[in-house]
Amino acid sequence: MKILVGIDGSENSLRAAHYAAKLVEHFPGSTVTLVYVDTLAIQIKVKGGILPSNYEELVEQGRKITLEKAEEFFAEKKLPFNVKVLEGYDIAETICDFAAEYNYDQIIMGTRGLGNIKGIVLGSVSHKIIQIAPCPVTFVK
To answer: Mean pLDDT in the chain?
Structure first.
């Protein structure tokens, strides 16, 4: 099984990574890709801006901060995983396009609550992913 886990550095996304790890333990031979979407580069380019010369270094620092805990968790458990930093304007579309292109079997993501109705409403990225995903989606709270 090929599993794609969206990571944004939140506690909910880390719980999604833990859930994915449990699946891999139960389904030997499965692989997990931890994916982080960089939206800043596209936003700068669309507005005619130029990326700073050290942009790749900045992205790498952001990736480390965002993905570090999930990467450490998989490494400690000796579970197979990959890391992919995607560049896109829309996080949901970028994740779903990647999942479709590389034939992922499942997308796992964290959710987030909004205002006073926390827990009832999905975050905007989660909501869009469930609408356009090319495969089953599991949300972890």
So the answer is: 86
